[in-house]
Q: What sequence folds into this?
C-alpha cells in the first residue's frame, strides 16, 4: 500500500456497520489504531442527542466504537482540542479540521508526526439551533423526534423515530436561509487531500452503495494507519470500481462549482465598507470567543489582539478586530467557528474572509493545505 | 516657513500626519531636509524607530484610531538596511496593512510607504508636501474619534 492508492472498504464488525455511516470504516480504523497501540488516544464526539455532542480525547476502545455514526449538525473543530497536548493521537477530521491541525503544527502546537488524520469528505455541516428551527418550520417535525439524518443526491433527509423519511432539497432550504452554515456553502475543500486518509461515501457504486467507504491514501502515515486496521482484522478493503473513481471526481467538481458560485454571491464588491464593518461590529461585547475557538490562532491568553484593546477606548473601530483582520488575512481557513460561537451573531467568518480572500489569492497561499510557512512570517516576500 | 510652501488652507483645517522614520535613513533624511532648508508643511509628527522593521501594524492602527489623517511608513532603500533585511520584513507587513486598509475602505493616500535615504532631504520634503496636499483634498480621516481635531 502506498500514497495515491484508492480502496473501498467496510468494517468487519456487524454492529459498527449497522450504527456507523457508510460501512463504519472510519470508526474501525480509529478503534484498530487504539487497540494495536499505534496511538495513545483518539478524538471522537460523545453524542448527547442529534444536535449536541462533546468532543472527547479517549483511550477507551469502547468509547470509540460507541461514537459510530455521523452528525451533520454538530459543527466542531478538533484542531484546538489536540493543540499543546503532546499526544500521539488519531482523529477524524473534515477539510477544515485538517487545515486547522496543519496550521497549528506550523505554529509548533501540534506535531504532525504524532498525529494521524483521517480526513472526511464534507459537503457542509449545519448549525444545531438553525437545524432545530428548520425542522419545525420547513419539515414540520419536532426536533426531538429525529432519529437520523442523511444527505443524498442534493437532498437533506431526516428520519423520525416512527421510521418515516422527510426530504427537502438543500437548494430550497438554503434559499430560505436554512441548510448548511454559510462558511460551508463557499468552502472549496470538499475532499481533504491534505489529511493522511480521505474517506467518504462518494465513489461507492453498485451493490456497495451506502454500505462502504471510499478511501484515498494521501500519505505514508495514512498507509500505515489503514494497513494496521486491515492486519488487526477490523476492516476489509477491495479495489474500487473505475466508475466509482469517476463518480467521486464528478461529485467533487460539482460541489466545488457550487462553492465558487456561493463565493461570488456572498462577496459582492461594495462601497462604503468602513460603515459596513462598523455596523456589523457595533454589537461586539468583547467576549473573545471568536479568538478562543479559532483553529489557526495559537497566541494563547496573552496576545496582541487582546492586550492592546481596551473596552474604554472611544475608537471608531475595535483594535481587537483590526488586529484579528490582519493576522487572519493569510491564515483564515474559513471554518466558520467564529460565526457559530458569537453570542451577538456577528457574521465574523464573512468579515474575515473579506480580508483573507484577496490576500490569499494574491500570495497564492492556501493555509492548511501544505506545509508552506505563512507569508506573514517569511523574511522576504516570495510572490 | 514661506507662504508658498504651505498649500491653501481648507477652512483652517490642517491634516495631522504620523510619519514613522527609521533611525538610519529616513530620520536622517528628515534631518537633512531641515539642514538643506527644503520647505515642508508643519503637518507631520515624526516617530523615530530604530528600523522600519520595528513598525508593527499595531502602531499604524493605533495612529489611525487616535486620529491621524495619514500614516507614512518610511525606511532605508531595499538592500541598504542597517540591519541587513529589516526593510524586507517591513515590505511584508506593509502588504498586509495595505490590504486591511483597502478592504476597510480607507483611501490609499492615507497609508503610504516610501524608501528615503539619509541624503535625500529634498525627497523627504517633497514627499511630505505631496501627501499633505493629497490629504487636504480628502479631508479628515473617517477613523478620527469624536472630539479630536
A:
Amino acid at each position: 500500500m502506498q500514497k495515491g492508492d484508492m480502496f473501498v472498504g467496510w468494517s468487519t464488525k456487524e454492529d459498527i456497520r449497522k450504527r456507523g455511516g457508510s460501512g463504519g470504516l472510519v470508526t474501525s480504523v480509529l478503534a484498530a489504531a487504539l487497540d494495536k497501540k499505534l496511538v495513545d488516544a483518539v478524538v471522537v464526539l460523545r453524542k448527547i442527542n442529534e444536535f449536541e455532542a462533546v468532543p472527547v480525547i479517549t483511550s477507551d476502545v469502547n468509547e470509540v466504537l460507541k461514537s459510530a455514526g455521523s452528525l451533520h449538525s454538530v459543527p466542531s473543530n478538533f484542531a484546538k482540542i489536540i493543540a499543546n497536548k503532546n499526544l500521539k493521537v488519531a482523529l477524524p477530521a473534515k477539510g477544515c479540521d485538517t487545515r486547522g491541525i496543519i496550521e497549528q503544527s506550523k505554529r509548533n502546537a501540534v506535531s504532525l508526526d504524532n498525529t494521524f488524520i483521517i480526513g472526511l469528505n464534507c459537503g457542509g455541516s449545519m448549525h444545531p439551533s438553525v437545524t432545530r428551527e428548520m425542522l419545525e418550520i420547513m419539515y414540520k417535525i419536532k426536533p426531538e423526534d429525529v432519529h437520523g439524518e442523511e444527505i443524498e443526491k442534493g437532498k437533506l433527509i431526516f428520519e423520525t423515530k416512527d421510521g418515516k423519511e422527510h426530504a427537502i432539497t438543500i437548494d430550497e432550504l438554503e434559499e430560505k436561509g436554512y441548510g448548511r452554515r454559510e462558511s460551508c456553502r463557499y468552502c472549496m475543500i470538499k475532499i481533504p487531500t491534505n489529511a493522511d486518509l480521505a474517506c467518504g461515501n462518494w465513489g461507492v457504486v453498485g451493490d456497495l452503495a451506502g454500505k462502504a467507504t471510499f478511501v484515498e491514501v494521501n500519505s505514508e502515515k495514512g498507509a500505515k494507519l489503514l494497513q494496521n486496521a486491515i492486519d488487526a482484522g477490523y476492516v476489509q478493503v477491495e479495489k474500487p470500481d473505475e466508475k466509482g473513481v469517476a463518480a467521486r471526481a464528478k461529485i467533487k467538481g460539482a460541489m466545488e462549482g457550487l462553492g465558487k458560485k456561493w463565493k461570488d454571491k456572498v462577496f459582492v464588491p461594495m462601497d462604503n465598507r468602513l460603515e459596513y464593518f462598523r455596523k456589523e461590529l457595533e454589537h461586539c461585547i468583547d467576549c473573545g470567543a471568536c479568538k478562543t475557538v479559532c483553529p489557526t490562532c495559537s497566541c494563547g491568553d496573552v496576545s496582541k489582539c487582546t492586550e492592546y484593546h481596551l473596552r474604554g477606548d472611544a475608537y471608531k473601530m475595535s483594535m481587537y478586530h483590526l488586529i484579528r483582520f490582519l493576522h487572519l488575512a493569510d491564515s483564515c481557513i474559513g471554518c466558520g467557528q467564529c460565526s457559530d460561537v458569537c453570542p451577538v451573531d456577528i457574521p465574523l467568518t464573512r468579515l474575515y474572509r473579506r480580508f483573507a480572500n484577496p490576500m490569499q489569492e494574491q500570495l497564492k497561499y492556501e493555509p492548511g493545505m501544505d506545509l508552506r510557512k505563512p507569508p506573514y512570517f517569511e523574511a522576504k516576500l516570495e510572490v | 516657513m514661506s507662504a508658498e510652501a504651505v498649500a491653501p488652507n481648507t477652512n483652517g483645517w490642517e491634516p495631522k500626519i504620523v510619519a514613522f522614520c527609521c533611525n538610519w535613513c529616513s530620520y536622517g533624511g528628515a534631518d537633512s531636509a531641515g539642514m538643506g532648508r527644503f520647505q515642508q508643511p508643519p503637518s507631520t509628527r515624526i516617530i523615530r524607530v530604530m528600523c522600519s522593521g520595528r513598525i508593527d501594524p499595531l502602531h499604524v492602527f493605533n495612529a489611525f484610531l487616535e486620529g491621524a489623517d495619514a500614516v507614512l511608513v518610511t525606511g532605508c532603500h531595499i538592500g541598504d538596511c542597517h540591519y541587513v533585511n529589516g526593510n524586507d520584513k517591513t515590505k511584508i507587513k506593509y502588504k498586509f496593512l495595505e490590504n486591511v486598509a483597502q478592504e476597510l475602505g480607507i483611501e490609499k493616500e492615507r497609508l503610504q510607504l516610501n524608501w528615503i535615504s539619509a541624503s535625500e532631504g529634498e525627497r523627504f520634503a517633497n514627499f511630505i508636501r505631496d501627501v499633505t496636499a493629497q490629504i487636504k483634498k480628502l479631508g479628515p480621516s473617517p477613523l478620527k474619534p469624536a472630539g479630536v481635531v
